[in-house]
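Crash report, auto-generated. Payload:
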Amino acid sequence: MFGYILRRIALGCAVLLLAISTLYVIVQAAPGDPASAMLGPKATPAIKAAFAEKLGLDQPMPVQIARYVGSVLSGDLGTDLRSRRPVTEVLAAHAPYTVELILAALVIAAGLGIPLGCAAAVRRNSFFDRAIGLLSVSLISVPPVIIAIYGMLLFSAALGWLPAIGAGEGLAERLHHLILPAVAVGIGWVGYIARLVRASMIEVLSANYIRNARAFGLAEGRIVYRYALRTAVAPTVTVLGVGVGYMLGSAVFAEIVFARPGIGKLMYDAVILRNYPVTLGAVLAATTLLVAATTLADILNALIDPRFKESRE
Amino acid sequence: MDRLLQVDNLAVRFGPMQAVKWVSFTLHRGETLGIVGESGSGKSTLIWALTRLLPETAAINSGEVWFEGADLLRLPPDRLRALRGTRISYISQDPMTSLAPGLTIGQQMMDVLHREPWSAREKRARVIDALDWVSLPEPERRTEMYPHELSGGQRQRVSIAMALMLGPDILLADEPTTALDATLEVEVLDLLRRLQRETGCAVIFVSHHLGTVATLCDRVMVMKDGEVREDGPVARVFAAPQDDYTRRLLLCDPAHILTPTRRQPTMADAGTPGAGPAPDPAGRVKTEEAPALSVNGLSVTYTRRGVLPVALGGSVDRVHAVRQVGFEIRKGETLALIGESGSGKSTVARAILGLVRTDGGTILLGTDNLTAADRAGWQAARAEVAMMFQDPAGSLSPRRTLGEQVVEPLVVHGRRGEATRGKAVELLTLAGLDGGFADRYPHELSGGQARRAGVARALALSPRLIVADEPTAGLDVSVQGEVINLLNGLQERLGLSILLITHNMAVVRHAADRVAVMLKGQIVETGPTARIFAAPEHDYTARLIAAAHHDLPTHESA
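Recovered output after restart:
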């Protein structure tokens, strides 16, 4: 098991290195250059060239990539072209907001989706099952932006229960501010996870070992949670791991709509301003989050179902 | 003997299908009752119905199951649950799926003891005792292991230990040895017999195998289409079956026919046993021509890498699956490769088909050296060698008709033009299925029909050699003979060479000209079938044959 975890982490690091190189190329290939953006339309070509040279943008691409990867590995992501602060510092200030948003969204998705799916599978084809099915499809169909905007209109503007913008200070305030954006990002996944868990639970509940557990007189609750759900939850863990990527996408919207100072908002602002070091840094942070999430999902799966690691080797 | 369980008029239906038809029987204390029948005869449904453990799609129409003055079919759920595992226990068919994959053996066995007032420490001690009792080596270490880390035979031992741990009065065993190979089957049956003697519990043993039931049981019940056709003491039923179906079943079991014959009696024409010539290879086997397949010094090694790359001092486990194996198959000849699971026989087949990398030796198909073949060479070779897969239903795509699938090898080999419906019908007919099967889907087939479809597909490219991997595994005895007849008949008509991989000694006796015995990756003995059966040279061969004979208790009286 330990070896498996080490291998998964090593693989995750390799993916990250590749992602860093690719990202650098993509950002450089995007239209517009940072010199014009930073120096304004009045800058002469000579000044632009000097600026580019200062940033190393005149070097051949492989050299630039190698230099970038090297500096990333040494913890140097460059300097924010606006604030003149190190990018790592800027990221460190923004990242917690996004991480907490994604975590809260995951808690909502799994915390509601798994029990709902489980209940639907156990009471298959009942009214209850159909109601959960209908709810799931509705949740899947509504884009997070709509939920964000209507949630804000209803709970902040009309009812005044929840704060509309910002991230808050202190634990209670922060959690309070987290509710609306986290629901916006996570609620669509509730339906998706519920459907997924229902399908795999139905399959697992018909397995031979479930009948055997009943034949040994085990209580139904114990059978459902200890025997069936354990196996049935594996695909959900994988999907949620990958889902973090999609949630990061939704987080960009959520952070803009709710004016949360997270990575998504940072990324959006940096792209508009062609603030290359920050853009790259933000995307890198998001990529790291995604790779960490999928790696964690694989490791979790191996812990839940020991056969999983063999199927991945 | 006092009555332990009394079943009256039990009937179970799945939708419109009446699976168990008003069955009544009695089980006495300490008795072993065998229930025999083909797949679909309702025998498993019957025993799972006794404690209401059927799937939701099943409904019990009528009946009473009396156990200690209570009708189990009408007992409140929690009172019934209190009996399960403690007074009435089950062992189910497939050891690969009968244990939960995500929990250790120890956790699952402790769960069985959930109602007992013992401390965790004491429960653990009892679990270890139980594993020791079923002769599982290193019981303490096994409790920490997950089911997938144990072999099939070990898992079945765990299942048995779980079922008997609380000393039940009744053990219901649903085909507990069907998924095991012959030598393991004998071990598990011996174990069951010993445990039954020690505990004195009554056993209902369900099997499609007459011989197994006969060796283990006092009384046997024969089921067909949900009805009990015959019920009586084993010796009487086997010696003088009163029902016509039982009689035919006994006649058609290839294991009961001791004179080798290439034409097995079938259920349809039962009563004319041994029709057809003995397996005289003269004339059919082309001894003077070059062999169809010749394997020399074949070695296959599986490697399993450790955590670190080798360059950094990581470990590499090498498993020598096949070591220095050599044999040849003449044109028109059947060679049986026998040995228990893990002996390497399937690896040999995979090497011949180019599905694993070989580490040494040569495989000559006719005059082509396959071990030196490139991609194109292999492509050509694969047209000459066809595989009949072990699980025919699983190796057919559920979404396409048989007609499309049996000609698929032609499409794969770039002969799409020949992959016509006419060709499909021709192949199906050759395999003994009528042309109408071309429009059917795999789920509409019985086990025997799926097997025939597998044969039809194997014949698509007019191969010279067929590799038949366990062609009768999982088939009812009533159909095994038909499959043997089919392979033998095709061999005579088409001059095929057949590599028969099996652990079913009855099939070997009736279909093979020569036998090669594999043990731990090596061939320990080769010889003509008759000689191998009459005078095995290697101990292991003798054991395999003895294990098969074990299934033939009352044959001299039958």
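Post-recovery validation: Residues 95 and 431 of chain B are 33 Å apart (CA to CA).
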